[in-house]
Amino acid sequence: MTVCPRPLRYLVPPLVTLVILVLTGCGGDDETSTPAPPALRYDVAKANDIAHGAMIGEADLAGAGWTVSQTDNFESTPPPDGAPTCKVVDEKRNASKLITDADRTGHAQKELTLPASDTPVPTTVEVEVAIFKGTEAPGKALDALRAAMTEDFPRCIQEIFAVQTPGGAETKITDSTLAAPAPTGGIARAWDLDVTAQGATFPLRIEAYAWVDSNAGGSVFLFGPRDVLTAQLVNAAVGKTVTKLTAQAR
After folding, report:
1. CA 75 to chain CA centroid, nearest Å
2. Residues of the chain with confidence (pLDDT) below 50
3. Phi-psi region of 28 (alpha: psi -120 to 50; beta: other; left: phi over 0)
4. Radius of gyration of the chain measured on its C-alpha atoms
5. Which residue, among 242, 214, 237, has the nearest Cα to 224 in the 3D structure?
6. CATH number of 9-22+43-246
7. Contacts of 147 (CB under 8 A, 6+ apart)
8. What's the CA gap between 190 and 5, in Å, rounded?
9. How many angstroms separate the first and last alpha carbons of the chain?
10. Residue (of 220, 160, 214) closest to 185 by Cα position
11. Which of 107, 8, 114, 6 minimizes the C-alpha distance to 60?
């Protein structure tokens, strides 16, 4: 079975689409008063350095053999032919991207890969962090991501494996229990996949985390064999990214 090494990249929108509208309450009951803008936790002048400072490395993940396979790759892969649901997801992502691109001032991405000896599917952990000018990036972007995760995402996964696996593949997808809690201000989903192709069945897993913290947004996306995506691995990837980011807050 041959699997595209990054079959799901374009499904998870860039970090610019993950920042939600953050509102702070004002004192009293005066409905005509205007809330003061929230203070920014992350220095916009140091945005790029902060984003890159939040990236995890090989030593942060459980197990030996991790390598960095992508750094600051912000290009999205277009959906393959024969995947109509994926094209719908792609259109939604592009619409959100147009809304929030202008507000982003710093951006970092890293993908780490762990080859597997007994399966053709490697394990990948992709981390992204973005810093913005303010906190008023649209909440609709996060709502769109949440909707895609619950409706379009599983169908798109099935389409990808069906059209990109030689001879085709049948994919059963079920919701699963998260190995780590969603970071504060974020969303998270987990799915178990049973991909059958050429007479063999491969038990795979996906976990996706996205969150906001004042004028910063982060995401961690994990994909690989089910027995490799352990709670230890997932908690390390998510927890250490959050820790590295919040350590730079002012």
Report:
1. 14
2. 1-34, 138
3. left
4. 19
5. 237
6. 3.40.1000
7. none
8. 19
9. 49
10. 214
11. 114
Residue 135: name the closest of 92, 183, 95, 185 by CA: 185
Q: How many of the other CB atoms lie within 10 Å of CB of 235?
A: 14
Q: What is the DSSP string of 104-165?
A: EEEEEEEEEEE--SSSS--EEEEEEEEEESSS---HHHHHHHHHIIIIIHHHHHHHHHHHHS
Beta pairing, strands 186-197 & 170-175 = antiparallel
Beta-carbon contacts of residue 80 (< 8 Å; ≥ 6 apart)? 86, 159, 160, 163, 164
User: 17 φ, ψ to 5°?
Assistant: -90, 0
d(Cα 153, Cα 173) in Å, to the nearest integer? Answer: 10
- List for the chain the helix, strand, coil content (%; round to 5): 30, 25, 40
Q: Over the stretch 62-100, which tens digit does the pLDDT of each residue have? A: 888 999 999 999 887 788 888 898 888 777 777 667 667
User: Hey, how many other C-beta atoms are within 10 angstroms of the C-beta on 25?
Assistant: 7
Q: What H or E segment, with its residue span, contains residue 95?
A: helix 84-100
Query: Can you give 38-54 as a three-state secondary structure string?
Result: CCCCCCHHHHHHHHHHC
DSSP 32: T
**Amino acid identity, position 183:** P
Q: Please state the pTM of the whole predicted model.
A: 0.83
Distance CA(139)–CA(169), nearest Å, equals 36
